[in-house]
Amino acid sequence: MGGEVDIGIAALEGQREPFLGLAFEAAAPQPPGDLGRQIVGQPLVEFGDDLALLLPEDADVSARRIRDGLKRLCGADAAVVVTDTFGRPWRDGLTDICIGIAGINPMLDLRGTNDLGGRELHHTVVALADQISAAGGLLMEKASGIPAVLLRGYKFQPYEGTAKILIRPPEADLFR
Length: 176
What we know:
With 176 residues, the protein is an alpha+beta fold. It has four helices and four strands.
């Protein structure tokens, strides 16, 4: 039985697996930091109106499996960012954010560096994987059915951790 990662790898090999099911677990309270289980995918026209694409159980594991598949199939040592659409407090509109990573640091810590005016940055930590996700979302075009894009030219920091470091700790979260 295949899953979301198998569909991603199968797409690399020119195959397609059948869609498997639907579950809405977001209605129940989720543990803090479990971002991938808090978001529910929307139905895709390609699969029909009564089906929806499930998010991965663990998007970091899915990203690692996709990265390993890319390396195995084409020798590419590429970083992988798994994304989903997300609404933000205090802002209208949606954007794509990172829910899983493999091979790239999801944060870019600029503290201690200088801005254009020579002033030292004390608080600037960029959610790099979210910026990459948003750029990828522009290229994938919401209703196009494009499942993945290749972004080239960014010199990223290799990283073997998880996207969970993007989640603000409860004591700093204004919405809990």
